[in-house]
Amino acid sequence: MKNIKDKICTNQLYSFKEGRGRKSVLIIFLRAAVPFFFFFFSLPFGEGWGGASFAQDIHFSQFNASPQNLNPSQTGMFDGEWRFAGNQRSQWAAIPVPYKTYSISTDTRLKMKLKNGVPALGLLVNTDKAGDSKFSTTQVYVSAAYIKKLGTDSTQLISIGLQPGFTTKSFNINALTFDNQYDGDNYNSALGSGENFSKTRITYFDLGGGLTYLWRKTQRTQASIGLSAFHLNMPKQSFFNDKDIRLDIKTTINGIAEFPAAAQFDLLPTFLYQRQGKFKETVVGLFGKYYLMPVNGAVTAFSLGGFYRLKDAFIVAANMEYRNFNVGLSYDVNTSKLTEATNNKGGFEISVIYIFKKEVIFVAKKRVCPIYM
Hints:
Blueprint: H1 2-6, H2 22-42, H3 67-70, E1 82-91, E2 99-109, E3 117-130, E4 135-149, E5 156-170, E6 201-218, E7 221-230, E8 250-262, E9 265-276, E10 279-295, E11 298-309, E12 313-322, E13 325-334, H4 339-342, E14 345-356
Antiparallel strand pairs: 1-2, 1-14, 2-3, 3-4, 4-5, 5-6, 6-7, 7-8, 8-9, 9-10, 10-11, 11-12, 12-13, 13-14
């Protein structure tokens, strides 16, 4: 496995000047993290401030494969020039109208440095369609992050991100049937529904933010943890002009680590915890990553493992990395009370990430992993 090991720290883009010592690094990290922790845990974990709300966000089982949906501060945190990500999820195929979710995103670091840091920008577009009413959600967000190294090299990084954007929700009332449209014997579409919706489409401004800390010794020995909060402005959610119905703030904690267990085999534990209003989600996962022999000089790896979403589903997943591509497949096996309707069938999901990376010849004077700046 000499070829694999040789590639761990030889693709650096920049060398760094001597920076602050460990004590100063700790002070910088605490100054950045403590206010965010305080703000994060002061957010409401119960029902919304303005009244009860039961709307929940779209989600992906392969949450690490949709970085901007997971945490805005992950914008720009990758090895390369540009990153393009796509996700597709089809949920509950056994029910008459399955749910379908799509997401595309791109992000890059800007060509500037600010006090041992670098800004990054990203664009995220989500679409979701659910139910007989064809209830549709379209989200367009711009992600902005500032990535700062916390030492003499970039072994430790901290990133702070914001994500403003707009969301449009709509439904097709003509696709629904109501009690008032039954004449006693049959359904009669000529009869009125008896419902008085003031509108069937709403658009609102939305705002999220996050913080990520990354420690990376090599490309095969690393760990990160992130905190994020979405819908900070608690936008209105009513189709009846009810100002008290708002979207609850969603708070998220996520983490992932990778470490070698053998010469060609790594373990990757990961977790996700989310809470929005009275709803919460806890997901734990473990993957085994096997490094194949290099193909045409590129390290190739195959991962197999799964997640368990507490009280809801087991998720089996596989992933393939080759050159600049990363492709993942997963399937949810439902274990909740919904199994009577779904026959244990959950959701199929596919993710594709492509990273455009320039070939740079660089001879490192000392180890400076990773290469985000």
